[in-house]
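Recap quiz, item 2
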Amino acid sequence: MKRDLSYTFTAYLVLFVLIVFNLSPIIYMIILSFKPNAEILRGGFLPEQPTLEGFISVFTRWHMAQNFVNSLIIASLTCIIAILAGIFGAYLLGRLNFPGKFIFVIAIIVGFSYPSAAILVSVYINLTALGLYGSYIGQVIAICSYELPYVIWILKDFFTRLPKNIEEAAMVDGCTHLGAFLRVVLPISRPAIGAIAVLSFLSGWRNFMFTSILSTPKTMPVAPKLYHMIVLGLNDYSGMMAATLLGSIPTILIYVALQKYVVAGLRS
Amino acid sequence: MNLRKNLKKYKHIFYYFIPTAIFLSITTYIPMAQSITYSFYNLMEPFINIKFVGLHNYIYMFNRHDLNYSLYITLAYTIISVSAQILLGLATALLLNSWLFKKRAAIRGLFLIGYSMPSVATGIVFRQLFSYGPEGTLNNLLGAMGFGRFPFISDKNLAFLTITIAEVWKWHALATILFLAALQGIPKVLYEMAEVDGAGIIKKFRYITLPSLKFVLALMITLRTTFVLQHFDQPFSITFGGPAWSTTLLSAFIYRLAFEARDYGKANAVGVILFLFILIGVIFYLFVTRKE
């Protein structure tokens, strides 16, 4: 009995330490975003007089409303394009057999593991030549360089797991192969496609490498804007943390709400 | 005759193949081919006198001290942080899997917060938290405890430590989730049988838990290695690759070479070198998943 008690105590202690380790940077961010800059400069930890100054500064001093709109546009476009362009490839790899399939599979893996930093230079040169430098669509095409193969890769496993002969059943009823895909396979795949759509939305929201180079101040999304704020280093600590918090809220909310699907997706 | 028959048999394949091939070429494969081609040209801004230089970019870069240094710290960063995040994730998963914690999903949710945040955001939080100035709460705490203040961002070695800690902090949750899922898939009967046979905790771990985790473990090591090798957002937003070039990992090295020095040819040569490293990881990954 005594041994059990000390075991329980140790387990809870370790869990507590792990939670502190995991959450302290997040708690720090939340506390500093409510703490006036004058207080931060004096040191200390908890705010004596919590304010919303930081959050106001995000919109008045840093004009970030536009960056949030930009992030929303870029993330939505990434999600739409990666899904629309990706479902055909995922279906092809997941359910159909054809000679040379192995090469295609390798090409997809190479596609999402080729370093973005190396793609960035070519995309930068191409977009400049096409006059698309700084546009939303340019940034989205760049993000899709890894997101599209990745979506194909993840969705492919889902298509593989569908029951074997649903297409044949539809084709007996007079559908063409493509018709069977559009009218039967896609509708029953809606939940999986939805979950992956959310993940690619987040991928677009989070991207920093491409958007930091390929955007102009007008079309810049939140992630590179945060970086620009900290590079300027104007000692607006609480504004910085408030902006970081606001920029992270969509991703945190979606992840925690969709935890079940995210975990299932990671497991596959 | 045979060919035509084959073509007809595979006709429907083209409906799916052609749009996919077009999209992938635009977004991925054309830029990739360009990137490899550029690595053999002396391409830099302003674009004058562009010519084929063969392997010159590669030879030049390998003779440069800073590339070798960047390769070295990238490998060190990858090896240290991948092993640390896997060990920490495994330990956390074993703890959460014990009978004590019924509210696993809630705790897992807490652990997911850091993982779900954009890497630039967590990078900026770490930059401020570890800062030398009054906003650096970690230094405030260490100072109050009598350890003094440490230049976590501006000292070469400490900066490397900071980005490694941040990497482990951010990504160990992924290992936790995957290991926890694998642990919950082990039938309880196995442990009960082992207990009947008089096996202790260590023996149970060695002969039941570890073999069941082997696949996830191999998967995690190969996947994490390929991704950490090219990590950019978080380490770069903590130290900006500095002081000087001391924490410039390979991806950041390419980024800075291309967009600070504007030397695209050499940047792409480094890109191809990084890709070759990643390719080794990918081959291991294929080898691991092949058996499943």
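Chain A has 14 helices and no strands.
The CA atoms of residues 131 and 138 of chain A lie 9 Å apart.
End of item.
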